[in-house]
């Protein structure tokens, strides 16, 4: 299974996942179930794509040049949506929110600083610690993170206050690092994604979890941004099952020549998932001031407009650097600059 093939079907998986992210921010009636797996899956896939050679400077550029650019765009769209709010005080306030990030920042901007720290901490942990020591520490973080949440974070998201805000969602690292590590240490078992048995078993398990929740009222909920991870066992079992299912489904989709156009579309979506992530909420907030629509239109606006912009951005080196963090000297080596890279 070649590296290019692997990246192709992982891009397809990211395409599926970023669409679930959009749906979760709409009025889609089944959004709560997508929170079970989509953010853990992005961290797991990022771990799968981890490479030993990591430059802190290049990572900072790749993550935070686009973060800064899209923060400015986000503020522009915010003031276009609510022009009466335009003031120097609000510009300063919104800028502070983007810098602080985490739970303070509405939407998905929390993800980028959190992924950056996850990636860097894992890299230096791997560099300076033995594998057993690193695994032991990350396992301890997983346990400590759950204990911390159970002791300090309100069970209902709406009850979370500024007292629970931590810069860059540092508390979430206690679960994102384990997911990232799971992805990295699972690289050698990726070959099982090509098995139809893997697809069938993971799919049946995923359906069974949904049935347990909807029919038998077995409650489960996860939201990494708001530190809602409370189930020591289920927070591994449920996200991992769905992630394996989505990766296996993506592999089999990529192998079907009859569906090559569909797989190419999802691959394109996955490789532009970063731009889609940044823009789907502010764009919809603006269009919602012009007319009323449901989750289908919300998803189409949040997907197709950023996707079109992503394609245009890819045609210009400067735009690629500003909005995708692509260094032209290394862009040929990184053909897929998506959400989980």
Automatic annotation (TrEMBL):
TM spans (from-to): 34-51, 63-80, 100-122, 134-153, 165-185, 197-220, 232-253, 265-283, 295-314
Keyword annotations of the record: Acyltransferase, Membrane, Transferase, Transmembrane, Transmembrane helix
InterPro entries xrefs: Acyl_transf_3_dom, Nod_factor_acetyltransferase
Positions in coiled-coil regions: none
Domain Acyltransferase: 8-314
Molecular functions (GO terms): acyltransferase activity, transferring groups other than amino-acyl groups
Family matches, as PANTHER family: MEMBRANE-BOUND ACYLTRANSFERASE YKRP-RELATED
Name of the protein in its database record: Acyltransferase
